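stage 2 :: seqdesign
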């Protein structure tokens, strides 16, 4: 069980007159074992904030902690702790090496555990991870091109889980998928979250998706969080005008994924 905490985090892109603050003074805690949503329109800084937690972008100020321990710095401890946070991106086509069998991609990711694996242990683990995302372990030797977009996204989730993370940051993981398979991926994420007690930061511009998946939510605008709270109360009674605007942009806030199967 792990709590992810951003404290006063700011990120600047560029230098001098061209500098731009993409993330401004963000305070955000994702409670252990919960799914916290981050919504906001394109360019509001969601992906930038996500990137800071895995070391892809260095914050200009502030701290990021896992259970109180720093994960930003260059120390061995910070780097080790950072591996407990895994990021899943929007585009499952770009995320997998087209020349590498999917099992090999997943096997490579088991290195992040820092343990030594025998060949047989590793291949058993790859089969287990594929099964967790409902893909037959016998498909480990297939290239990404043999899979649909939804299946590829499930494979990238398996690869993230190979690192045995405590925290998953899901950055628009269904945005590139057909609506018909979005529900499958969201249901899988919910299922894995419950099974593994993962702490999840779930990023999306789609409020219906956020409502389906998240316990709590923060609304981001121009690098700042303008509103946070329980998903139901933020979405049913938004206090911030910007949240109301976002809500007005989607005509019906139903629960379109309820009928989805887990496959
Ligand atoms: N690598 C980068 N270099 C310079 N500016 C960037 C970079 N990545 C994002 N930005 C800018 O930072 C702001 C936030 O972008 P981003 O974090 O991608 O927002 P979101 O994920 O909410 O769409 C935008 O103005 C974007 O143009
Ligand atoms: Mg983004």
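stage 2 :: out
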């Amino acid at each position: 069980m792990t709590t992810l905490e951003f404290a006063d985090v700011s990120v600047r892109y560029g230098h001098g007159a061209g500098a731009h603050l993409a993330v401004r003074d963000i305070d955000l805690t994702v409670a252990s074992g919960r799914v916290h949503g981050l919504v906001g329109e394109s360019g509001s800084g969601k992906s930038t904030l996500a990137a800071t937690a895995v070391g892809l972008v260095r914050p200009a100020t502030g701290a990021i902690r896992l259970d109180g321990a720093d994960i930003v710095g260059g120390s061995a401890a910070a780097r080790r702790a950072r591996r407990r946070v895994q990021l899943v991106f929007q585009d499952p086509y770009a995320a997998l090496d087209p020349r590498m069998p999917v099992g090999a991609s997943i096997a490579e990711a088991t290195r992040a555990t820092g343990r030594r694996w025998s060949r047989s242990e590793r291949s058993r683990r790859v089969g287990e991870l594929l099964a967790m995302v409902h893909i037959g372990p016998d498909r480990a030797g297939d290239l990404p091109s043999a899979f649909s977009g939804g299946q590829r996204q499930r494979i990238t989730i398996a690869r993230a889980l190979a690192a045995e993370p405590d925290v998953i940051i899901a950055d628009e993981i269904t945005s590139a998928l057909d609506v018909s398979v979005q529900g499958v991926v969201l249901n899988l994420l919910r299922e894995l979250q419950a099974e593994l007690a993962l702490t999840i930061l779930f990023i999306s511009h789609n409020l219906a998706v956020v409502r389906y998946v998240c316990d709590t939510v923060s609304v981001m605008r121009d690098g700042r969080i303008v509103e946070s709270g329980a998903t139901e109360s933020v979405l049913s009674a938004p206090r911030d005008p910007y949240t109301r605007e976002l809500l007005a942009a989607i005509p019906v806030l139903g629960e379109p994924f309820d009928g989805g199967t887990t496959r």
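stage 3 :: structure notes
- Residues 258-263 have pLDDT under 50 and may be disordered.
- The radius of gyration is 18 Å.
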